[in-house]
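2024-03-11 09:14:02 DEBUG pipeline.ingest accepted 1 chain
2024-03-11 09:14:02 DEBUG pipeline.ingest length=187
2024-03-11 09:14:03 DEBUG pipeline.predict start
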Amino acid sequence: MAAPVASAAGRAADNSIVSQASVRSLMQRMTLEEKVGQLFMTYAYGSSAGTVDGRNQAEFGVDTPAQVVQKYHLGGAIYFAWSDSVNNPTQIARLSNGLQQAALSSGARIPLLISTDQEEGVVTRIGPPATTLPGSMALGATRSTASAEKAATITGHELRAMGVNMDNAPDADVNVNPANPVIGVRS
């Protein structure tokens, strides 16, 4: 239940890890709505927690990403370029901070899982100045577990500094059907 929270300077700090007794106490005080909300992760539109975007109103019935987190007691948020949430590391860190503050001040008071698809290669949600690294097929072609581990370590450290505490990568996409090129070099 501990999640890194990014600072405005782009560094993450660990929240303290809670005991089993604390978890039981937390679960007892949460409403059913808050417990159900913790099962969900979604996107919201905006480059900051307080950005008013009409798409949030249309899809979630509220104006800002922070309000989406609070209204639905979300367990997580996911960042995509099309939702205007991944412009640069400082902006991402500030967004992460704002969403974590919204989660911690809501009824559930549980830090968010904040994720993105930073697979590297062709699926890179956060571009430069984040480190540009090869994708899975290129890393696999090296047959070097050390290279793959180094790439993953770099990616993890950079995401953590932005308050992203979950990367939806690597994944198990396998390119086995030449008639279906959707996976391509992501495999």
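2024-03-11 09:14:41 DEBUG pipeline.report The chain has one domain: 5-186.
2024-03-11 09:14:41 DEBUG pipeline.predict end
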